[in-house]
Design goal:
23 helices; 12 strands; binds pyridoxal-5'-phosphate
Length: 637
């Protein structure tokens, strides 16, 4: 089935090339639903009569409905962002899968609520299946793991912290309970607070056997709250998404208990420094509540060395008898794990993988991907306690679809509000199904079953392996490589005798390409940042003009507050002095997630690049003209 998958047949297309099919299926979705309505007790008489439908106020209501939709459409068409076009290379957005769009609309008509199985008999099951797909992709044992859909990566990260917090406080709760304390007899507080997750969950099994699980759980953070400063530190790379700050706040842990981990020149967590800090905390007896690794940093697309984190945890367990919770924030990069899996869900051997990339022209000769440590990082994801992933990013599914996967589903009982053991198999299948009340075991309550259908449908059409998502994601990766190489070697653009040279921040781990334009001869980093900020404004809707944009991108600022001295490496490579860096303390960069699958053809890409250089020349001309005008005003004044 999957062998014949054609990537261009998955999307509507920038010119709606697949519109005939799309419209047909959209009409099918709606027709089917209407048949379903009329077939429900066909003996029931219609309740709105044609006579009533011809009353003036009735017709007026329909006219006004149409009018509102007219004005909505006008507003949407005036100011929406054209993700579908290869002219858009900015945030993690591109065209979305037709199958997901259609599954969403089809399901939306039934309006299922995945809060509870009884409100979504079909889509709760689809959500569980989609969650299993993701667990499988991450190398988890599907029989033991658990995954579900969230509104996005933010909530998935909250849930990671939520379970980590509750797991962390269970051993202390056990030590406090008369009927349970024998289970942890002789352990110090430090050992209790640093217990390995599996061990904690094994203890909860014992509590369940003794019938005191709920009582003990009530003594954990869930019941008694977090006593300030008792849970230790949460180690998060400086490259973190700001949802981590929100998570510390929302879950009562406090932002000051984050230890930011420095990043290296590739914007990955600096392994040496991570080890140093971890060992220091171990030596001084400060517990580690959790460690976060980012697979695909939001700003740079960098992939942390997950394998080094896992190695470090093992070392700590052996040397100090102390462990810590590991959560991977793969909101951006999670689906990339499909690039490494064969059709039997095996993580492929490196050489076999590269051979297949060449054979199927997924990654051609000359494109450096994957770097060896990126490969190792993806392989090690299977050892993490939990993982955030966003289907609405690299899953090419429309909003709002995030997800979280957990390695050991017993962990859900620590946050659940249903009677415990919600997901235990029941003897009676029917009963087992009805037991599933997602809303009581996850952070959110009511939510669209349509989202679950959209994610589920995507996974059925585009398998989570090399022959499915591998082909889709691979296109962006290759294009990003080409793009970064063009940027690295491009001749300066000349505008009215002034020369502007573009250079990438680095060669990407994934498909985020960052770059800046520098005016040759300008030594002021402040001016440099202003120039790039202005370019961004002219390449976005920030300047308010619509339909005039030839190229759209996003931007960010790499500042000393967030990254320490690391961005100075790039500033220096661009010729700015230490003093300039000290004074300015940030580098403003243009940021392009290359998700489009349309440029994966060398001739097409070269044409695109040539056109892009013209676009940039026009933009720089506009900026130079603005400056000339301003200096005239100045000299006149
Ligand atoms: C996008 C992103 C998030 C937040 O996800 P939302 O879906 O926007 O809530 C968290 N972490 C990383 C690394 C991200 O890229």
């Amino acid at each position: 089935m999957s062998e014949k998958m054609n990537v261009d047949a998955l999307f509507l297309g920038p010119k709606s090339e697949n519109q005939v099919f799309f419209k047909e299926m959209m009409a099918y979705a709606i027709d089917e639903h209407m048949h379903w309505r009329s077939d429900f007790h066909p003996e029931d008489a219609p309740l709105v009569s044609p006579v009533a439908q011809h009353q003036p106020d009735f017709r007026d209501t329909l006219y006004r409905t149409e009018g509102i939709l007219n004005s909505l459409s006008a507003r949407l068409k005036t100011k929406s962002v054209p993700w579908f076009s290869p002219r858009y290379l900015g945030h993690m957005n591109a065209d979305t899968l037709m199958v997901s769009n259609l599954a969403y609309v089809m399901t939306m008509m039934y309006n299922p609520n995945n809060c509870a199985h009884e409100a979504s008999p079909v889509t709760t099951e689809l959500e569980i299946e989609a969650g299993q797909d993701l667990c499988k992709m991450f190398g988890y044992d599907v029989n033991k793991a658990w995954g579900h859909i969230t509104s996005g990566g933010t909530v998935a990260n909250y849930e990671g912290v939520w379970v980590a917090r509750n797991v962390k406080t269970m051993p202390l709760a056990i030590a406090e309970h008369e009927g349970a304390k024998d289970l942890v007899a002789g352990m110090t507080e430090h050992q209790l607070l640093n217990m390995n997750t599996t061990k904690v969950l094994d203890l909860t099994d014992e509590l369940k056997k003794r019938g005191i699980f709920e009582e003990v759980r009530a003594l954990s953070a869930r019941g008694v709250g977090v006593k300030p400063g008792t849970l230790g530190k949460f180690l998060v790379p400086r490259s973190k998404h700001y949802s981590w700050m929100k998570a510390m706040d929302v879950l009562g842990i406090g932002q000051e208990h984050i230890i930011p981990l420095d990043v290296d020149a590739n914007y990955r967590t600096d392994v040496e420094k991570m080890r140093e800090i971890t060992f220091k905390l171990m030596e001084e007896g400060t517990p580690i509540l959790g460690m976060v690794s980012v697979v695909g940093t939001t700003e740079e697309g960098s992939v942390d060395a997950v394998h080094e984190v896992m190695k470090l945890r093992k070392e700590c367990e052996e040397k100090y008898g102390a462990s810590f919770y590991v959560h991977i924030d793969a909101a951006y990069g999670g689906y990339v794990r499909a690039m490494f899996l064969d059709e039997d869900n095996n993580f492929m051997d490196y050489d076999a993988l590269v051979a297949r990339y060449r054979e199927e022209n997924i990654i051609p000769e000359g494109v450096t991907w994957p770097k060896r440590d990126v490969y190792d990082a993806f392989e090690a994801m299977a050892e993490a306690d939990s993982i955030t992933v966003d289907p609405h990013k690299v899953g090419y599914i429309q909003y709002a679809a995030g997800a979280v996967a957990m390695k050991d589903k017993r962990i859900v009982d620590l946050i659940s509000y249903h009677a415990a053991y919600v997901f235990e198999e029941s003897d009676d299948d029917q009963n087992g199904e009805q037991n599933v009340v997602l809303g009581s075991s996850i952070m959110e309550g009511s939510k669209a079953g349509a989202t679950a259908a959209a994610v589920w449908a995507a996974h059925r059409l585009v398998p989570l392996n090399i022959s499915g998502y591998g082909h889709v994601i691979g296109r962006g990766i290759v294009t990003a490589d080409w793009f970064a190489n063009k940027l690295a070697t491009a001749e300066p653009l000349v505008v009215q005798g002034r020369r502007f040279e573009v250079r990438p921040l680095m060669h990407p781990d994934f498909h985020m390409v960052n770059f800046t334009f520098k005016e040759i001869g300008n030594d002021s980093l402040a001016d440099h940042n202003r120039l790039n900020q202005r370019i961004y404004e002219l390449c976005s809707y920030a300047s308010g003009r619509t339909y005039t944009k030839d190229f759209l991108t996003s931007s960010t600022s790499l500042s000393v507050d967030e990254y320490g001295q690391i961005p100075s490496t790039y500033a220096k490579s661009r010729g700015f002095s230490d003093q300039e860096w000290e004074a300015e303390g940030s580098v403003y960069i243009l940021r392009s997630a290359v998700m489009t699958h349309f440029l994966r053809d060398e001739i097409r890409f070269n044409n695109y690049w040539n056109n892009l250089q013209e676009v940039f020349t026009d933009i720089l001309t506009e900026i130079v003209d603005e400056e000339n005008k301003q200096s005239k005003v100045h000299s006149a004044a």
